[in-house]
Write a structure and sequence with these properties.
With 446 residues, the chain is an alpha+beta fold. It has 9 helices and 17 strands. The protein has a 6-stranded antiparallel beta sheet with strand order 3-2-1-4-5-6. It has a 5-stranded mixed β-barrel with strand order 7-13-14-15-17. Helix 1 packs across helix 2 and helix 3 runs parallel beside helix 4. It starts with 6 loop residues before the first helix and ends with a strand. This is PmbA protein. InterPro entries: Metalloprtase-TldD/E_C, Metalloprtase-TldD/E_cen_dom, Metalloprtase-TldD/E_N, PmbA, TldD/PmbA_N, TldD/PmbA_sf.
């Protein structure tokens, strides 16, 4: 990197700048104020066909100031966290607040909800990585995949590494900060035979670089995935079971979280409005949030309102037990915040887990989906229709690859029709899940 990142010094600087913004807002007559500031530094390299395509060294910082004059709100931000920019941002926020209408839900979270303890959650693992070392790892990843017979081309391999500091402060006297890091390695390869060409990818992503899979492992896996798709055909049309591989199953959980998010609910833009207590999944399925899990990708001791985070049970034995609310959305709904300003953090499911082979045997005949395309999900109605690719399953065994088909249903029916969860859990993102077997969906193929 061009310069060392001193996380301790950056944290102290951002904290002092946040406090300065609060002081200025108070002097200018704000009844309340909150400040969010961050700084991030990282490196990303990409290679293709054995050559370096790009090297990017980045350093980003920013600050956002929100002031409240009564129940009028003004927000201004800057990509420069210098003293002059902060003064300007506060002045602009005050000017905006004077012209906005009153909002009964506007304002800081109650002081008693502020995070009182901010433990070390093990999310900061700096990587002293030189540019040459980063290039070497990316090259090794691509070479491992390209050396596999049947791989004819590459869209490249990339390695990224970064760390940063996030600070939130408000006029309750709360000041919280957290350091974090994120590292990833990915590879996209193209396989070819007499049927044509197919592409696929694989990646590894961790807070701690020591936990990343080896470059060779990522490259070989990307090659195997691309080769497995050669000779793909369109499946038959019909209503049949669909098995979502872990990467795709996590997306289904993501659609659920969007539907129970406060912003969608108070705007009446969710198919789960007034859904609390309703049975959505089988009784053996539960879903919870663990925002203080050690070392996890989305762990945090406080949310974007400064509210302490806590374990939340969203699905309890199949029933919708809680919405996902910030302070503002909770007030709009006449409810209490769940500490979810900024979204969900570390979603984990509880269910009897089965091997992928067991799930395949149970589905007998249908499609296994490994890729989804398009944005055909209606959050208001729950209607679901996506382009897909994957594998045809017959007699409980994977037979051949399939592509250019559509799967359709409604999320309510899909959730209720969940008949099994795999033990092949993908732990790379904030949502951890194995494969999902949905008992019946409409498949439109040939």
């Amino acid at each position: 990197m061009t310069q060392a990142f001193d996380a301790t010094a950056q944290q102290a600087l951002l904290e002092s700048r946040a406090e300065a913004a609060l002081d200025q807002a108070r002097r200018l007559g704000a009844d309340a104020c909150e400040v969010g500031a961050s700084v991030d530094q990282g490196i990303e390299v990409s290679v293709r066909l054995g050559e370096v395509e790009s090297v990017e060294l980045s350093r980003d910082q920013g600050i956002a100031v929100t002031v409240y004059v009564g129940q009028r709100k003004g927000t201004a931000s800057s990509s420069d966290a210098g003293e002059a920019s902060i003064r300007s941002a506060v002045e602009q926020a005050m000017a905006i607040a004077r012209y906005t209408g009153e909002d009964p839900a506007a304002g800081l979270a109650d002081a008693e909800l502020m995070a009182r303890e901010i433990p070390d959650l093990g999310v900061h693992h700096p990587w002293a990585l030189t540019t040459d070392e980063a290039v070497s790892q990316a090259l090794a990843c691509e070479i491992a995949g390209r050396d596999v017979d049947g791989i004819s081309n590459s869209e490249g391999a990339s390695l990224s590494s970064g760390e940063g500091v996030r600070v939130y402060a408000n006029s309750h006297g709360f000041l919280g900060s957290q350091r974090g890091s994120h590292h990833s390695l990915s590879c996209v390869l193209i396989a070819e035979d007499h049927h044509g060409m197919q592409r696929d990818y694989d990646y590894s992503s961790e807070r701690d670089p020591a936990k990343l899979r080896s470059p060779a492992d990522v490259g070989l896996s990307a090659a195997e995935r691309a080769l497995s798709r050669l000779g793909a055909v369109r499946p038959v049309t019909g209503r049949m079971p669909v098995l979502f591989d872990p990467r795709m199953a996590s997306g289904l959980i993501g659609h659920l979280m969007s539907a129970i998010a406060g912003g969608s609910l108070y705007r009446q833009a969710s198919f789960l409005c007034d859904g609390l207590g309703q049975s959505l999944f089988p009784e053996w399925f539960s879903l919870q949030e663990k925002p203080r899990e050690q070392g996890a990708i989305a762990s945090s001791a406080f949310d974007n309102d400064g509210v302490y985070t806590r374990d939340n049970l969203f699905i309890d034995q199949g029933r919708l037990a809680s919405y996902m609310l910030s302070v503002y959305s909770a007030r709009r709904l006449g409810m209490d915040t769940t500490g979810n300003a900024g979204g969900a953090r570390n979603i984990r499911l509880s269910a009897p887990l089965e091997s992928p082979e067991t799930l395949l045997a149970r589905m007998d005949r249908g499609v296994m989906v490994t890729e989804l395309m398009g944005q055909g999900v209606n959050n208001v109605t729950g209607d679901y229709s996506r382009g897909a690719a994957g594998f045809w399953v017959e007699n409980g065994k994977i037979q051949y690859p399939v592509e250019e088909f559509t799967i359709a249903g409604n999320l309510r029916d899909m959730f209720a029709g969940l008949s099994g969860v795999g033990d092949d859990t993908d732990t790379r993102g904030s949502i951890h899940s194995g494969s999902w077997l949905i008992d019946a969906m409409t498949v439109a193929g040939s």
